[in-house]
Amino acid sequence: MSWTAPIDLYCERTSAAFWAEPVNAVSNAAFLVAAALAYRLWRRAGGRDGPALALVAVIAVVGIGSFLFHTFADRWSLMADVLPIMAFIYGYFVLAMRRFVGLGLAAALLVTGAFFAFNASFETLWRLALGSGAPTLNGSIGYLPPAAALIAVGAGLLLRAPRAALPGLDRLAAGSLLTAAGVFALSLTFRTVDNGLCAALPLGTHFLWHVLNAVVLYVLASGAIRHRALAAPRA
């Protein structure tokens, strides 16, 4: 396939024109707003949290990459869309293992590597488990493991909190992860039903995936920033 071959995945796009998805394209501004708000929180928290600042930058890049895909809508812009999302998922996973769970760097990287391997094989496992008629969820299957990870790690921290030396930190982290999981479940629903609603709703619902995911990324980044700020005086 050519890197410039057109890709049409969403209701709103009805041609290969640059502005064929105006709402899907412009709704990516939500990521820039989320990055700006997270950056302001980072500054107020002392401005010394390097990993969190990197995540804030990735949030902005997610918005730019997604804008490129919903305007150019071809293979290279699809990579510009997907790669920053992957960078946030795995970057945040490493941070969560280190900052929230308390693993050392080597252990955190090992667990993240296992998580990556599971994600990479998940669609194949999904088809093997559900057979030839397995639902495709409009291309959303690959987002199920990250959603499950938010719930699993958040629930684990919540259960650990009563026995932790600093239970407030575990509850703060758990709250951000579980809140993000709830919003993400809603955003994933809107992404999944987009093509099925084209006849009744030509605009589609993909733009809501952008807006709600911007909320998800802000909640996650702000949770990491606040956790570090509260933990720092005790370190």
Quick description:
The chain is an all-alpha fold.
Description:
The protein has 235 residues and is mostly helical. It has a domain of 146 residues. Helix content is 71%, strand content 0%. The protein has eight helices and no strands. Helix 2 runs antiparallel to helix 3, helix 3 packs antiparallel against helix 4 and helix 4 crosses helix 5. The termini are far apart. The mean pLDDT is 96.
| Stretches with pLDDT under 50, minimum 5 residues | none
Order of SSEs:
HHHHHHHH
Q: Residue share in helices?
A: over 70%
Q: What Rg do the Cα atoms give?
A: 19 Å
Residue share in β-strands: under 5%
Shape descriptor reads globular
Would you report the number of β strands?
0
Largest beta-sheet characterization: none
Q: What structural class do the secondary elements suggest?
A: mainly alpha
Oligomer: single chain
Average predicted confidence as pLDDT: 96
Number of helices: 8
Distance between the termini: 53 Å
Keywords summarizing the entry:
8 helices, 235 residues, globular, mainly alpha
What's the SSE blueprint?
Blueprint: H1 22-26, H2 29-44, H3 50-72, H4 75-101, H5 105-130, H6 144-160, H7 167-193, H8 206-231
Helix pairs in contact: 2-3, 2-8, 3-4, 3-8, 4-5, 4-8, 6-7, 7-8
